[in-house]
Amino acid sequence: MDITGAAFVVMAAIICSVFGIPFTAAENEGPFEVRIACGSTVDSVALETGYNWSKDRGYTGGSSAPLNVTNRIAPQLNTLRYFEITDGPDNCYNISVPSGHYLVRFFFSFGAEDNGGREPIFEVSLEGTLVHSLAPGWSSIDSNAYAESLLHITDGAATVCFHSAGHGNPAIASLEILQLYVDAYNMGSSANLNVVMRTVKRVSAGAEESGFGSRVRGDEWGGDRHWATDQDLFVSGCAGEAIHTLARISNFGNPPNVYPEAIYQSATTIGTTSKLSYTVSVQPNQNYSVWLHFAEIHPWITGPNMRVFDVMANGALLFQGIDIVKIVGEPFKALTLNKTVMVTSSNLTISFVAVKGPVAVNALEVFQIIPRGYETQDETVWALHDIKHSLQLPSRLGWNGDPCAPPLHPWEGVSCAFDSKAGAWFVSAVNLNNEGLRGQIGDTWPALRKLQALNLSNNFLEGEISSFGNMTSLTSLLLNDNFLSGELPGAVGALPIRGTIMNVTNNPGLCGIGIRPCSTMPLSVKLAVTLSLTAGLICLVGGGIFCWKRKIAITRPHRHRK
User: Fold this and answer.
1) Nearest-5° angle of CA 38, CA 108, CA 176?
2) Same domain, yes or no: 107 and 149
3) Mapping DSSP to helix (H, G, I), strand (E, B) and coil, where does residue 552 land?
4) pLDDT tier at 551, thresholds 50, 70, 90
5) Rounded to whole angstroms, how far apart are CA atoms 199 and 378?
6) Contact 321/310 with Cβ under 8 angstroms?
7) What's the total number of domains in the chain?
8) What percent of the chain stands above pLDDT 70?
């Protein structure tokens, strides 16, 4: 399941001299599960497992294409979803889920219609944290097509994003979001809440074949994990011996860490003077969580001090003097051990070294511990999503997921900065110059309280300018060469007084401070008022003359009588 092209090599060497989370769903109701057939327009049921697969939903863009290979998880699936450059550099699935602990699994594929048969290169993030990188050559190893990670989701939605590297179209054939017990794989305290555990390898030693949890009667809270056999991975000439039992195993399914009983009913063992080694290719200078599973199933080992061995990680002691029966008290009882190791090289070799009797191992798991990335402040995310719609951003810009996380994939035209006090990213600048934007500026921008520069020039924006006057951090505001209209708000016109660089020129319908005087009356109204005033004045003057002449006419006869 290693998506970085890491091949799993079992050196099961007889080292011959040449091989030297807040949980809200009620547990008694069963786990919350989402299985999406990407690209499909119909629901389906996997015949072998009975699992329901929903038609494609929750995606931000992309197109459907045929799936040309068999999906081992659900063979009935026959489509995939891919994201072209016209869909934007970042595309996501946003799926509502209860807060809890989840296993998220992908099946990646590509074909002629979606990628012209050429391998796409892209990255995948979960909740803003980069977790999977499909590097060149990933498709040459079958197991790389399947990838999974464990994480806690506390915001009510799983956000899964695919980030284009400019080489081919990201493509996904199936997506699963499967709930686990909240304390599963607990590494102590609340450490799990702050990390993503990327599955590097999971092995059922001595198993005759690989399989998912559902095919070995795994608990429904186990996330239907895939367990790979080690039987075809031994170094030639140095294979260990597989042992099996049909006896029941106790202590294997105790929450929160529930495992299939089957992984404890097989084991790989080796001679008393030898050691058994497993080597996993890893990313150097990272922490890895190692989980080891044991149960004494050999009929000859019935008590303590009959099988004792050490466990080494890259030559350093991991566990000393493991005596399975002594630790758990009896044979056929499961034991799980866990430890975190820092690996500085590109390989992690786990060796089981005999101290007394032959070594034996039932299963092992290796996870890369990836610190959760910081996310963008919530009010900023919601404001930008609203702005995306008000400005009618073209789909090629994307603007999906988190604008600043992961930091290697910020939104097009968005610059981010980190607020160490708040422990979150904020948007410091937005540059959408000459992007063909239409619509209106809207009144959401003031929600970006720390925005320092905004450039919306050379577009086709219409309507009035919202007030940017309360954006005290704004040092540059470029709205020129649009089709804005109305009066420039006084607070906006006063921005240059406090040092803000502002340009609102070449907006024919815009007026106000620093542009041109605004007319409060249309020309027709002005003309009507002028005519009315002129007519009134004429009437007034005419009336005065009439009254004056009438008065003269009345006074003349009186003078004649005298």
Assistant:
1) 55
2) yes
3) helix
4) low
5) 29
6) yes
7) 4
8) 85
